[in-house]
Design a protein that fits this description.
- The chain is mainly alpha-helical and about 170 residues long.
- The chain has four helices and six strands, in the order ααββββααββ.
- The chain has a two-stranded antiparallel ribbon with strand order 1-2. It has a two-stranded antiparallel ribbon with strand order 3-4. A two-stranded antiparallel ribbon has the order 5-6.
């Protein structure tokens, strides 16, 4: 592919499209994470200290090769010590219940709704990114063709400029 301009240009356009697709998916995941955090916080049935709602957060742990946005709840804000000296995270007690308390799910019930619609959102983002790429390429193609610059290659590889530019 070293000297083939068409192949080099195609490869460059495909690499640009891949980067554009990655950016679109990343933006979509971040937006989904924000929305999920908000929905989980609204699903918490009560708010004694506010720590449970504050503990719901989004964390972007994406790398160059894998897009990953985590939504978490619990942790240091909701970890308490028992009189016996043991630690427990009451976010888990809220979600799953205890011997003395019925469960009051707030996390997984919200997450399940997002899993159900996730593939559809990825498909829509994929199609939107392809359509945007095609619109951009069409505009660039129109700009080049309207400038009156084109290259015609005749038989035997001879290159000729369009009429008026000779």
């Amino acid at each position: 592919m070293g000297t083939n301009t068409t192949a080099r240009n195609f490869k460059a356009r495909m690499q640009e499209l891949a980067q554009q697709m990655k950016g679109s998916f990343h933006d979509m995941l971040l937006a989904q994470g924000d929305e999920l955090v908000d929905n989980i916080q609204r699903a918490i049935p009560h708010n004694v200290t506010g720590h449970l709602k504050q503990s719901v957060r989004k964390k972007d742990v994406s790398t160059d090769t894998k897009l990953t946005v985590l939504v978490l709840a619990g942790g240091p804000l909701t970890t308490k010590r028992t009189p016996a000296g043991h630690s427990f995270d009451y976010a888990l007690a809220e979600e799953f219940g205890t011997e003395k308390q019925d469960p009051r799910p707030f996390f997984y019930s919200s997450v399940r709704l997002y899993r159900a619609g996730g593939l559809e959102q990825f498909r829509e983002t994929f199609e939107e990114t392809i359509a945007e790429n095609n619109r951009t390429r069409a505009i660039l193609k129109d700009n080049y063709s309207n400038a009156g610059v084109s290259v015609n290659v005749g038989h035997r590889g001879a290159i000729s400029a369009p009429k008026g530019l000779k």
